Amino acid sequence: EEYGAKVRIGGEWVLGRRKSRETTIYAGPVLAYDKQIYFDRDTGLQNVSSAGGNISDRYTYTSAGVEARYRNRTVRFGEFSFSASVVQRNYKEVPNVSSLDALLYRFGGDVEFELTRRLSLDLDYAYTVRDYDNLRARNRDASLLPGNDLLKYAYNDLGVTLRAEPTERLTLYLDYDYTVRDDVFAGYNDYTRHSYRIRALWSGRRTGLRLAARYRDKSYDNAFIFDKPVNPLDNSPNPHKSYQTLQIDFRAERQWGGLGKLVLEYRLYNQETADPRYDYDRNRLSLSYRIER
Known about the structure:
Helix content: under 10%
Strand content: over 45%
Distance between the termini: 27 Å
């Protein structure tokens, strides 16, 4: 269960124009609130700590920071942009657990090449750091000692998207994303992730269809399941963490009456891992009528 709000109060300036395309720069503060209810995966109830305190609000936070973006849409090959942000997240204090407060800073850019009138290629890269205020990092053997450095993660993300429009009504996407996370202290929580996705969107006069499929392979070189090198039940070595997930989404909508549209949505989510807490399948089907004014 999650909901939130974000407010941007900044200024955008036009630096140049070429026909209907502009080069702009934006800068300003950003404020956000995100409410998440932390549920126990085993019971489905709001989570509690080992001491019995309610920690269901552990992932609820407010944040404040600044961001800037430069976007150039006047070049002949397509467009490119750069962006940067610095944000402090303050999480709600809950009893008996460490605070998740952290400073996040990010720098990234992307470039889009218009290969033909109906075919484009997008490349993007982002470098992000999450610097925790209170959490300690683990040693390579998973031990969590008071003298360890504060936890700090550095992320390198690279993405590639190929977009095609075979017809006026049909749009196809092929995406690949590669992520590397570095646990700066000792590398315990380092991971690499490969993500592959295909998407198809069809838009008719009164009907719209969307189909998407994504496969992710996420592997940790050093982290153990349960954060324990050895299983305490039989003293056997615990495997390293790894997750393979498949997600399929389907959405169909049709104008119905004069007020809104009928929407049918389905999601299949399958995750395979050696960690029994996170090895599961999930199916969700919904039917709704949305009023648009």
